Amino acid sequence: MAQLKKDLKNYWYAILLVIIYILTMEIIFHKTCIFQILFHIDCPGCGLTRATISLFKGNIKESLHYNYSCIFWLITILLFIIDRYIKPLKIKPFPVLFIITCLITIIRYILIVIFKINIF
């Protein structure tokens, strides 16, 4: 808990800037994704929020349909939270897992946008 308080104290301005960005983009463009605003196409992370909400509701098939990389992102974030705030892990999987998750997200995007292949 002390680490969380320390992080919030050290990064409050970054959190505030993200909140201001989201509110501003929603008010002006009715979207928060700069990728969609500039290029008018879905970004690689498109559907992650809907996928996460569906997954938390227990609707796994719907979650996978929106963006199946959601599961990898949740695992990566969960391991990071455990390592940072609960109990340090002996093996530090976060950097490698983060890179793998990014690659999965990008490969998924390429399959859908370029090759029109959607696994789910």
Q: What distance lies between the first and last C-alpha atoms, to the nearest angstrom?
A: 39 Å
Number of helical stretches of at least 4 residues = 6
How many domains? 2
Mean pLDDT: 92
Description of the molecule:
With 120 residues, the protein is mainly alpha-helical. It folds into 2 domains: 1-32; 42-120, no CATH class. The protein has helices at 2-29, 34-39, 48-56, 60-67, 69-86, 94-113. The longest helix has 28 residues, at 2-29. The mean pLDDT is 92.
Summarize the structure.
This protein is an all-alpha fold and 120 residues long. The chain has helices at residues 2-29, 34-39, 48-56, 60-67, 69-86, 94-113. It folds into 2 domains: 1-32; 42-120, no CATH class.
